[in-house]
Amino acid sequence: MKLYKRYLLLHIQTELEYKTSFLLTAIGQFLVSCNVFIGIYFMFQRFSTVKGYSFEECLFCFSLFLLSFSLAEMFFRGFDQFASMISNGEFDRILLRPKSLVLQVLGSKIEFTRIGRMLQALVMFVYVLLRQPIEWTILKACITVFMILGGTVLFAALFVLYATICFFTLEGLEIFNIFTDGAREFGKYPLAIYGKNILLFSTFLIPYACIQYYPFLYLTDHTTNVMVAFTPIAVLLFCIPVHLFWNYGIKHYQSKGS
Amino acid sequence: MRKYSTIFKIKFLAGLQYRTAAWAGIMTQFVWGFLEIKMFQAFYQTEPQSFPMTYSGIVTYVWLQQAFLSLYMLWFWENDLFEAIQNGNVAYELVRPVSIYNTWFVRNLATRVSKTCLRALPILVITFFLPPNYRLTFPSNSTQFLGFLLSIVLALLIVVSLSMLIYFWAFYTIQSLGLRMIFQTLGDLLTGAVIPLPFFPTLLQKMSLFFPFAFAQNIPFRVYSGEISGIAMIRSIQGQIFWIIILVGFGKWLEFRVKNRMTIQGG
User: Fold this and answer.
1) Which of A21, A47, A194 sits opposite B46 (nearest CB)?
2) Looking at the complex, does the CB of residue A46 fall below 8 Å from at least one CB of chain B?
């Protein structure tokens, strides 16, 4: 933990050295998600609902999803850039050091510019709260927090999974972006609108729906079944195979050589 | 003319080398397009009467957008050009007996076309054979198809001449990241990359026609499906030609100014 704090401090200091670049990148992040927001807004200027969900409800989904994605991206970015770490031999150096592997990979990159995206998510969240007050109970507040945490963990697990695949391919697989960037893009609407098959996929294979759609149903009173509110826990189930796969990957890792 | 066609050939062939990347891109675009269609489908099923395009029109739009992504992406830059401007190497380009505007224009064109050659065909072929709800249909008649072929080229020229302005602007600002970002995000919205322009509120739709972005992908994709036809099609193509003249003229003027006022620091 102490080591991670040092990493954190180091990254903050580096970012602050290049203030303009940092600021511009953060604004860029903000603008890109702003475009997505405008897209949704325009759609609901024309349509009053989509499959029974209102504008505010979709925004609510989107803001929480975006918030967890940007949190994961900020702190787990090291895994996202793992391909380059393997190819330039940085990972071999890490293996030699007597400290936790995960910690070192995490510390290799912390992307504070994602604060732009988080800001956009927060603005939307506050906007929804002002427009359509959800009847808050302590349980609902807890669920919201769990949704964000669960989402962060899920995306982090996906980044780790991506990194583990790199052990075997030794290069990044662009196609994997569908599961991270693609999810961020299409998580803007409640996942049920994409039809039954997509919902099944995002329930049992990669549990996006467990941190978005199901708890969302409870929060917006579409269902009173309290059980669905606990689905974010399913993310932990997803983490188990990812963790095992990561260990397997490390064991079978053969350096790229020089 | 020959020197430019050689530059085009070199860049074009270089672009064709990235085949694995192209395959990965194709797969990604497939899933992307599929989900996009699912999304529009959901809106269509909820309120078909508010849907501003025909259903097959939107399916066509999405697939063409995916197939020709590399042709019209506004966030694609030849980064070595910006680097050359920043570190002064651009001086070498300026002493050559070619116009840098034309050279860079051709380079950009070649990269975009070669990237598209690799990706477009497989996507188009496969989407013709998908189940009816997701299928790309043929253009309604040969006039539409000719209009499509013409406007797809003109739209490409608009996108390239737009990005040329940013390259030349970088001579003045050196740090062009901020400008590029505004260009990309605003452009993406106004060109119909976020959602197609017919989905915009009416007033904004009319306003978007005052920007060159609306004459890029928006035209060929909607001409193909027959959403823009007859007089509107001719008007749109006229608009495209108008913007190309304006944008290239402005770019050439910037080139002229840059050439006369440039000072290279140090040696």
Assistant:
1) A47
2) yes
How does DSSP classify residue B1? -
Among residues A160, A176, A177, A171, the alpha carbon closest in space to that of A105 is found at A160
Q: Which of A24, A32, A174 sits opposite B178 (nearest CB)?
A: A24
Domain membership of residue A238 as a residue range: 2-251
Sign of CA dihedral A84, A87, A92, A93: negative
A182-217 confidence digits (pLDDT tens): 898 899 999 999 989 999 999 899 999 999 999 888
CA distance A129 to A115: 21
Please tell me the pTM assigned to this model.
0.89
Residue A229 placed within a domain: yes
Where on the phi/psi map is residue A147: left (φ > 0), alpha (ψ -120 to 50), or beta? alpha
A256 in a domain, yes or no? no
Residues of chain B with pLDDT under 50: 267
When divided into structural domains, chain A yields a total of 1
Q: Is A48 part of the contact surface with chain B (CB cutoff 8 Å)?
A: yes
CB atoms near residue A249 (< 10 Å): 17
Handedness of CA B240, B246, B247, B249 (dihedral sign): positive
Domain limits of chain B? 2-261
CA of residue B204 relative to chain centroid, distance: 21
Q: Determine, for residues A193 and B39 on separate chains, whether the beta-carbon distance falls below 8 Å.
A: yes
